[in-house]
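Record type: monomer structure entry
Structure origin: computed from sequence
Chain ID: A
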Amino acid sequence: MSVREIDANMLLAVLAANRGHQVLISDSSSVDTGLKKKLIAPGIFHTKSLTPNDWKINKHKALKEKGFVITSNDQEAGLSDIGYEENARIRFSEITISQASAIFGWGEEDVEILKEKYKKYSSKIFKTGSPRSDLWKSIFKDYWGKPSGISDKPYLLVVSNMGLCDFRSFPERIQFLRDAGYDKRDPKAIESEFKVKSDEYRRAYSFIEAINYIIKNNQNKFDIIFRPHPVEDIEGWKILLKGMSNVKVILEGSITKWVNNSFAVMHNGCTTAIEASISGKPVITYDPFNPPMHYGKFANKLGHKISTLEDLLENTNLLFDNFINFKVQKYSDRQVDEELSKKVYLDESELAAEKIIKIWEDISNDDLSKSSNWKRLKWVLKVKDIRDTIRLKLKRLFPNKFSHIKEDLKFLPIDSQHTIESFKKLKYILKIDEKVECKFISNRAILIKKP
């Protein structure tokens, strides 16, 4: 999911390339095409999850048969929830862990629970941290810069993970869970999804109401940037928030840039609250429900916990005033901070990305050093890009005739301008050899290596 993961993957790739490795960052389809055409030699296949559905198990089996080594750092890390037991049960299995050569944990909590549940494979589970949390560190502050295309007025960042405008319909979501076997691993998965969806709609309305209240009563002092979740339809949120002055709905670039430049972050049950807390940014947890929502319980322990519109306005204005007067007001709770440190491991002496690369090198072998035909792959993927573009244009022109063509709204093409700028910034911050280069093979695949 490029809007969420491209920067962390770039960090991994640049560091690995500087050590002499060739790194392809791409969607799964591009890899499949390269394998089918016998253009990609065996290497380490680093995947975003080990979810035990049939197609992923079969894919990993086929990769291993071709000589690939599989590793993973789960991107749905369960950080916003209390405990990791549910994630360990539904996003892993004996089969998928047995297929992997290394699993990289975000922190002490997920590593300990995975090792306890899958004792047979505990030696391949490592506490490295995540490259995504690497980029929350102060050394990368200059990497992010300021968002473009907005006014100079300070802004409150409101983040959504409410699913109200999900690009999939609810029945499609249920079908996905069944196809992926979630209902087999958790008998209450479907029932839980109905409860979650009900809560999402209630949360969404409460946030629309809260945003409207703040805007009407803040004397035009600041803007509100509303950030949809990457799987949500931005146009849907624009409709719901239409007519509210000083409210902008934006899904551009990594969330980290928007967190760093806000005066505070407002959320309910969102992982971004964890990032903001680690980065030292004030967090407003708005939960007007009694009893509180069951989703994202850990994230909702963070920051200023607000339950009424009046308190929300008062706290927002206070944080804004502190921001204007250069006062730092970080709401802290020792017990919560200790729990947070167990969820996200931050080693001040070494990046998580560096730890992962070292483990990659330890589990590597001579068979993973064969050359891939990158030039041929580039032309094959270019043809695929052209064909896909034509198919989507036909679908838009003749929606009834080409209704079978599906547009991938979740895994969007990679932003080339952002990627090149990020590559240059990472090289500068990390003092990387100038010989490392970044080449676009297609709009969904990047090759980073030395010439």
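Annotation 1: The mean pLDDT is 90.
Annotation 2: The domain at 149-333 is CATH 3.40.50.2000 (Rossmann fold).
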